Fold each of these.
Amino acid sequence: MELSTTVSELRYALDTFFFLMSGALVMWMAAGFAMLEAGLVRSKNTTEILTKNLCLYAIACTTYLVVGYNIMYVDNAAGGIMPSIGALIGTQSEGADHSLESDFFFQVVFVATAMSVVSGAVAERMKLWSFLVFSAILTAFIYPMEGYWTWGGGFLSEAGFSDFAGSGIVHMAGASAALAGVLLLGARKGKYGKKGQIYPIPGSNMPLATLGTFILWFGWFGFNGGSQLMISDFENATAVGQIFLNTNAAAAAGAITALFVCKTTWGKADLTMVLNGALAGLVAITADPLSPSPLAAVSVGAAAGALVVFSIVGFDKIKIDDPVGAISVHGVCGLFGLMIVPLNNADATFGAQLFGAVVIFAWVFGASLVVWAILKATMGIRVTEDEELEGMDVHDCGIDAYPEFVSVK
């Protein structure tokens, strides 16, 4: 065997392994979302939110395998709008840097991440089965369409839109779908008063919420680092190191800034805001974690950490009830991350970034609004007032997350 062939096979194996391990890190983010959301909802809704997170991941893996990946990547025209719709993941291309199966695995955990954003925003009042039906539609069709337009080489890619690891394609898309659902769903009972009062509804388990945030932070190294796609040469290995450094720096800066904003605004260190500050920094840097210098990455994270606090408060003021702050973290900060890419990347333009952001939002929000509306008119999307008062765990699952705290009559 020639030396060049051996080196080529070793690089193929290394890059495939890198892809798979990065995908495994992103898959672990599903646990992060589950723990974060379980901590930020009330105890009576914990089992149900865990069920949603596990089932949406399983649904995403199935629908994306059967049709979603094909829509996004297989046999599509460069610069096009409509994909060629087929089944399964196609065949391995000659001369590929990594295996097709590893590419699918890395992509499927991204689509599950987009759907995980939705579960927290609609928590504590949405019907379980309506949510699961929507999960299938988003992961099979809605997400893959905009994924083709961008990462799949469609018209947004041709227009110069740049989103390295998915601030817009994954996170803002998930938040757009969530916003459409929340608008049709309405707020939780007791969240807002008739005269505009805002009544906090505390989460049940701050240790779980904190654990979930750390898991997401950890998984994000695969999310951003794996998006470099290769690690088998000097340039790519160095780039992955830079991506890890910037990702970590942005998250840390986001948490610190949110902490200081809370202290100066309310005189308290609000843990939930600090957690969301770290996640906001991660979302914002995801659009381009490679180009910024370390100090620029700190600036990106710090700005996002402040932005998310004011965004969460702002959505509450207009009575958009988001129990975990997902629309602010993933939507507002995802948009912010997209729009600041040209500040650090000379190849990106504000015009192309704005165009891409508008198209992604319009498509995902519009398509989701139609699907939610159809579900509302048929299955219904909101539980009854009595079911909401009793809790989703008893109604949907029949299992209490914390049975030792339930009084027995």
Amino acid sequence: METKIALRAKRRAIAQTTMAALFAALIAAGAFISIPLPFSPVPVTLQNLFALLSGLILGPLLGGAATALFLLAGALGVPVFSGAVGGFAHFFGPTGGFLLGYLFAALSAGFIAGRPRGNRRVPLLRIILAVLAGFLVVYVPGVIRLKVVLDTDWGTALAAGFIPFIIGDTLKGIAAVLIAPRLRRVAVEQMDG
């Protein structure tokens, strides 16, 4: 017969696995809200928001695992990348750096916000810093990869892969700051309950 501690640990592991899978699915679902831009190979999606939220809400390890699961599914050909496509070749295309940046976003936002535990609240300033860092680490590898693939100068790469997204990502960042604290509490309840 299993002890209460063993049962609680098993329930927690199941809840954590479920939450990671849920966020991987949310990141994938973000691909279906994809707005192509005529001047850029990078579309507007919600995937960066969901990758960021995975780290903010689940912490660096589970958030990173959720994002890695999403990337693995896409690499294996599941159509989870923007435009409902998949395949390993997309990591070498113009948006490949952004895909890698999603993992960096989940990890960095998770490390800054910390792993959710009990009733501990994360200060708002820390959430804001986590959001800013999360978006920044999406753009660094994204713009670098875009510059290399397009064989262009930095100004053109920034004009195609960063500048058009500032307003939208500011709005996504505000949404993340507003919803992350509440969703962290819900995640803790589900994983510790």
